[in-house]
Amino acid sequence: MWNGLTETRETSNDECRKFRGSGNSGSWNAMEEVRVSSAWVADRSTHVVVDSTGLEKVVETIKGSIPKVEWDFEGIHYFDNGPLTVQYLFVLDALNFCFWPDKDLNYDHLASGLKAALQNDKSVFDADRLQKYTGPQLRELLKWPRPLPLEDERIRLLHEVGQELERNFGGKAANLVESCGKSAVYLVALITRHFPGFRDHSVYKGRQVFLYKRAQIFAADLWGAFKGQGYGEFNDIGAITIFADYIVPAVLRNLGVLRYSSALANTIESNSEIGSGSEEEVELRACSVYAVEKLRELIEIKSGKKVLSVELDLWLWSFGIQCPSLQHHRTLSIYY
After folding, report:
1. Is 72 a catalytic residue?
2. pTM of the complete model
3. Helix (H) or strand (E) run with residue 86 in it
4. Which is nearest to 93 in space by CA: 185, 281, 263, 219?
5. Contact 328, 268 (CB under 8 A)
C-alpha cells in the first residue's frame, strides 16, 4: 500500500529464511537475534514501513560517504584512558534512558554530571557505593534540582550494576570487558546474561524481539572512547547494530526512510504517549534497526565502501540532536 513495501518485505523474508536454514547453532549470537527479529518485525509491521526509495535517495545524497562524527564531539564524557573510564561508561549506559518527561533534561546532563562527579571523587562509582545510592543522592551527583524521570528504576539499576559487578567481576567493569576476548558480540551477551536491566526485548505478534540498545551502546562507547584500542578493541565491532532509541526513528522519518501510518503520525505529532512494548513502539525501533542495516548494505553495494552501523548511528544521532524541532515518539522505558 506504500512505495517500497513489497521490496522491503521480500528482502526481510529472505534474511529470516537464511538464518533459520543455516543449521549452525554455533554461529548464532546476540546480534543475529537483533537483526533477524528486527527483520521479522519489518516484514509484518502495520504502523511503520521502510521505504526502499527513501533508502536509495539517502545513499545517492551522501555519495557513499557519511560525515565523520567524533565519538565525544560534544566534549561531555570522562576519559582517562584506563579502567576508570570503563566504569564511568558502564554506569552512564546503565542510566542512559528516558529523558523526555523532563523537558530540561537530556543525555548531555547525565554524561557531564557523572563526569564531574567522578572528577570530584574517584571512588564515586565503586561497586559497593553503587549499591547504596538513593534517588536524592543521584540527583545530588548530577546537580539536578528535582526528581529524575523513572528515578526509582534508575536507582534499582545502579544497585543491580553494583551487585553484579561485585559478585562476578571483582567490582570492576574493566574485568567484564576483559573477559569478552575482544568480542563486542560476546560482551553484549555477557551483559544481558548478568545484568537483567539490560535485557531489552519485547514480544511482538507472538514472537520475541531483541534490541539490546544499552548493552550495544556500551560496546560502541568503549570502541569510540578508546578509538578501537585497549578496552575498545573489538574484532567484530561490525556486528553491532544501531541503537534503537527516540532520535534515530525521527531522523529516518525526516530523511524519508521510514513512513508512518496516519494514526501513528498523529499520535507522535500530538505528543501522546505510546505504550512500552506496544506494536507501534516495537515497530518504530525494530524498523529503524532494519532500515539502517539496509542502508549500510546499500552504501557498500553502490560505493564499494564498508560502513559500520555504529558510524551510521552516530551520524544519525548527531543529526537529530541538532534539530530540536524534530518530533520523536514518547514512551516510558528503561531500555532507551
Report:
1. no
2. 0.89
3. helix 83-94
4. 219
5. yes
Q: Which of 51, 93, 200, 245 is catalytic?
A: 245
Q: Report the alpha-carbon distance of residue 40 to residue 224 in Å, rounded.
A: 30
- The set of cell numbers assigned to 200 is 531489552
Q: How many helices (H) and strands (E) does the chain have?
A: 15, 4
In this structure, the number of other CB atoms found within 10 A of the CB of residue 4 comes to 18
pLDDT in tens, 39-49: 999 999 999 99
Confidence (pLDDT) at 16: 37
- CA angle 213/217/223 to nearest 5° reads 155
- DSSP lists the bridge partners of residue 202 as 209
Three-state DSSP at 96 gives coil
pLDDT, one tens digit per residue, over 261-304 is 999 999 999 999 999 999 999 999 999 999 999 999 999 999 88
Count of CB atoms situated within 10 Å of the CB of 188: 27
Side-chain-side CA neighbours of 247 within 13 Å: the count stands at 23
Could you tell me where the DSSP H helices lie in 131-274? 135-142, 151-168, 173-178, 184-194, 213-225, 247-254, 262-269
Paired strand residues for 209: 202
Cell of 238: 561490525
The pLDDT of residue 28 is: 55
CA distance 30 to 49: 24
pLDDT digits (tens, 9 = 90+) for 210-223: 999 999 999 999 99
Q: Answer whether 190's CB lies under 8 Å from 326's CB.
A: no
Q: Over the stretch 166-202, which tens digit does the pLDDT of each residue have?
A: 999 999 999 999 999 999 999 999 999 999 999 999 9
CA dist., res. 89 & res. 328, Å (int): 25
